[in-house]
Each structure stands twice: as structure tokens, then as C-alpha cells.
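Researcher: Here's a chain I'd like modeled. Treat it as a single chain, no partners, no ligands.
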Amino acid sequence: MSMHYRLRCLIVILWMSTASFYVFKYRYLDPTLKTRKGEIKEDMDIDQWMDNRKILYKERAKMVELACEKFKIRRGEITRGNFFGIGNNLNVRRNQDSRIENPDPSHFAVIRPHKSMACLINKVASTSLASHLLKLNGYEDLGPSPHSGLDRIAPKSADGLRYYNKTFYKFMFVRDPMSRLLSCFHDKIVMNPERNFWFRRHVLQTIRGKELPATKNVLRTTGNEVPSFEEFIQYILEDDIQDKFKSHWSPYWSYCTPCSIQYDMIGKLETNTADFKYLWKKFGWIEPVPVANSYKMSQETKNAYVSSLSREIILRIYKRYQIDYEMFEYDINAVLEVAKAAPLTDQELSESEY
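Model: Modeled as a single isolated chain. C-alpha cells:
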């Protein structure tokens, strides 16, 4: 056994030990952090609650730092509009055995009155946040979609992004990667068949390898001409896909570049009640941020979609989003359990696509 191999094994063991400690501390040593979705306990004042949330956010930031070290993700130059990268990753390049992040100013929204900056990720309450952040900057006319106005509050240059990174409070939100993929599938494939006709047709042609008539009647009336969830997953896992919706499934770590941008707060959609409350209290926001669920699916429907996936496909999803799963503490085995498939082996857990 080579010294290099032994050293790699030691690094992995140390990383897993440190990660386990933080998870243990969060779950067992500090009961004040275990309130359901972060509600304030009757015997806890708001200052204590805010302090406890701050501890939690520091622990989430520590997990990000450990993942950056484990996967050797390094800071690169700030660039705008980069769509090169590894697989479906935006703003990431390989350099020998390292991954180089290239933060893109267009991915960020600056709230100058509150000296803060956010990275908004599609399908993670981004529409609600975009609307709220534009209003905080004094923009009331949001047009047909708040997303179209985000360029008004994005950093205007690489120097601007560097300045905000050093001086402003920075936050981002994530959610379980599979939950996000389900939301994207439901929005772009299941719902709004008229609006999404061409995207659905492109998915089918890419995966099934056959031409389809350029008429909406085909997809409107023929059930088997609508992409299945597995076909949608196969489509987004294609390495050479250059699609206008690509940001909807790009991994969190590559889109928001948390190894280059030091986030003070990482919120999760699963704890959005507490996380948004923390931001309201910290910045004195009067209006709450509503989390829209226009096309909310029942848990039964979600489970049915996940159960339709083979173990092989789920493993490919894990390999594509492994850094997200580890960096933000999500569990791929929970997905496999829903699919009634065997959990990942230690070897599968250690393998990465990148």
C-alpha cells in the first residue's frame, strides 16, 4: 500500500470524524437548536434564539469549509457569464487535481440599504427572494418575473463583487438536491404544457433519439410523448447539455461558489421558517419573505416519482451532486430508501464524478 494512498485514507477519515462531531453537536449536545423548524421556545428570549441560530450558521459554514478542503476546491478569477465547466457545473474548471471556482457577479443580488448580498438559486425560493430583494432596493415595478430585474441589483464588476464579499453580509439558500430536481421536473415538464412545449420536445428528442413533429398537439394529446421523470434526469445528467434552464439544476456549490464567497448564513428550505425569521430580525425587514409553492406536490406524488428511478440512476445523481450532498449535509440514502433500493456502499460513497 503506497504512502500516497495511506495519506488520502487518513485525510478522508479525519474529514468524516470532524463532520460527525459537528452533526453530533448539533443533534445532541445543544437542545436549544432542536426546536421544530426553529420556533422560539417559551423559555427562550429572542436574543438567545438569535445567538443559537448564529451558532448553527457557523457550523453549516464549517461543513462547507471541510468539503472545500476534501474536494480540493480553490478560488479562481471572477468572471461573468461562464458556462464552461465539469459536467453541468457552471463556473468550475479542473486544474490538475483541484477544482477552480470562478464566481460570476450575475449570480448575486446586492441589498445595499442593508449591506448584504445573496446568491439566488433557481428552484430554491428564488422567485420569492428576488421579489423581496428588489423591493428592499426600492424597485416596485417587477415586470412579469422578478428574475428579469435582478441585473439591476447584481454587482456591476469583478471589483464590485470582491468589495461586497469582503464587507457585506452574505447569505444563500439550498434544499435537498432530489427535492429540487423534483420541483424542476414538475415546473418544466408536468405543469404548463403550452409554455414548456419546446423544452419537453427537446428532452424527448435528446433522450429517445428520434424526431418529433413540431406541433403542440403531439405532446398535448399523447401521454407517452411526455418525458418521464427518469428521462428528465437522464437529460440533465448529459455532460454536453447547453440549455437555457441549466441554472435550474446546476449544483449549488458551482453556482454560488461557497469556497470563494464566505457566506455568513446558509439557509435551507427545510428550515425556511427559522432562517427567514433570522434575516427579518437581523436586518429589520418589515415584510416577511413568502415561500411560493405554486405547483406544490404531495409527498405521495414525490415518492412515486422517486420510486420510478432505478438504483443506477440514483447513483448517477449522487455522483453528480455528491459535493452538494456532503457540503450541505443531505442524505442520498434517504432517497434510496424511498426507492426501496439498497443503501450506498462505502466505496460508492467515496467515489466522485469530479
